[in-house]
Amino acid sequence: MGASLSEDGILGLLARHFPAAHPSLLLGRGDDCAILRAGRPLCVSSDLFLEDVHFRRAYFTPEDTGYKALAVNVSDVAACGGRPLGFSLCLGLPSWADAAWLDGFFAGMAGLAQEQQMVLAGGDLSRCERLHVSVTVWGEPVEPGSFLVRGGSMPGDTLFVVGRLGLARTGLQALEAQGRAALEVWPAACAAHLRPRPQVDAGLMLARAGYNARPPALMDLSDGLLRDLPRLLGLTGEQSVACQDRCACLGAEIVLAQGQLHPEVVRYAAQRGRNPVHEALRGGEDYALLGSCAPDMLPALHAAIPGLTSIGVVTSGGRILCNNESTDSLGHGFDHFEA
């Protein structure tokens, strides 16, 4: 860490980018705790953003790093149909971090915070061998409406996404191979990986749509459709305990054509002899929204939410098919703990 960089100096730099007051706070930064003005339920989510696990400084600028560290958390609030209000930030800073790098990091994060009208309520600072970013974000339900959850899909429901499938995966592969030079050839894909756009407005519209009807099931796509769709359907994790009989489990029939994919996904896959639909299914870090809804809700959602695309139907029987083929041979998406 540069000799001129102290804890008080970091806090002063931070104060230049983030205002301390906000309507959702009774007491902001500077005390032992922030005090939230919480007269209604809040949704809360936390994420780690770690150097050489979630990003590389070789092709992430400081601004990209700050932006994405917050964006991945905002996406969780969007997936609940919530409106993001504020966040806390914990930073572990290695010796190379200096005031110039931090200024860029805070600028990228503050740009998204200002766009979403979010307040930084507090956090912590420490020394660390590698850059360690931990963000906790919270949000409120929309009026009228309530928070959305993953459960509740039924056979016959329509599956949909809001956002692009596989575009961030293409960007990651291009950046890993070419560094920031990939931005010239794969601009949309690189932007999708470096600066994902949380689908907050779409989440709010989906929550409103569920106010007088059966609410949509909803989650964000962070680990790829192959891993996240079973989560939506209750085929993995704690929900799967209740589904002992495979025939009684939910499944899905996905219909995904090349024409539904971003041209850069199709072009990148074609140049490498890969199936672009398979690349889209594997995905990862799309931070799109994945959901299901009653079929009669779909026309209104299409009209109200730009970028909403139907991708199939919920079935029974516990199997997931894509274009009439089993997805079992394609893997299961991203897992931090798999070799």
From TrEMBL:
Record: residues binding substrate = 54, 285, 334
Molecular function GO labels: ATP binding; magnesium ion binding; thiamine-phosphate kinase activity
Which InterPro entries does its entry note?
PurM-like_C_sf, PurM-like_N, PurM-like_N_sf, ThiL-like
Give the record's pathway. Answer: Cofactor biosynthesis; thiamine diphosphate biosynthesis; thiamine diphosphate from thiamine phosphate: step 1/1
Positions that bind Mg(2+) 4 = 32, 45, 76
The residues the record assigns to binding ATP are 123-124, 150, 222
Its keywords, alphabetically, are: ATP-binding, Kinase, Magnesium, Metal-binding, Nucleotide-binding, Thiamine biosynthesis, Transferase
Q: Give the first-level EC class, as a single word.
A: transferase
Q: Which residues are noted in the entry as Mg(2+) 1-binding? A: 46-47, 124
Q: What is its EC number?
A: 2.7.4.16
Known catalytic reactions: thiamine phosphate + ATP = thiamine diphosphate + ADP
- So where does Mg(2+) 2 get bound? 47, 76
Q: Does the keyword Phosphoprotein apply?
A: no
Name the residues that bind Mg(2+) 3: 32, 76, 220
Q: Which residues bind Mg(2+) 5?
A: 223
Biological process (GO) annotations held by this record are: thiamine biosynthetic process; thiamine diphosphate biosynthetic process
| SUPFAM superfamilies noted in UniProt | PurM C-terminal domain-like (SSF56042), PurM N-terminal domain-like (SSF55326)
**Functional description taken from the UniProt entry:** Catalyzes the ATP-dependent phosphorylation of thiamine-monophosphate (TMP) to form thiamine-pyrophosphate (TPP), the active form of vitamin B1.
Homology family: Belongs to the thiamine-monophosphate kinase family.
Quote the record's miscellaneous comment.
Reaction mechanism of ThiL seems to utilize a direct, inline transfer of the gamma-phosphate of ATP to TMP rather than a phosphorylated enzyme intermediate.
Tell me which PANTHER family the record gives. Answer: THIAMINE-MONOPHOSPHATE KINASE
What's the protein here called? Thiamine-monophosphate kinase
Encoding gene, per UniProt annotation: thiL
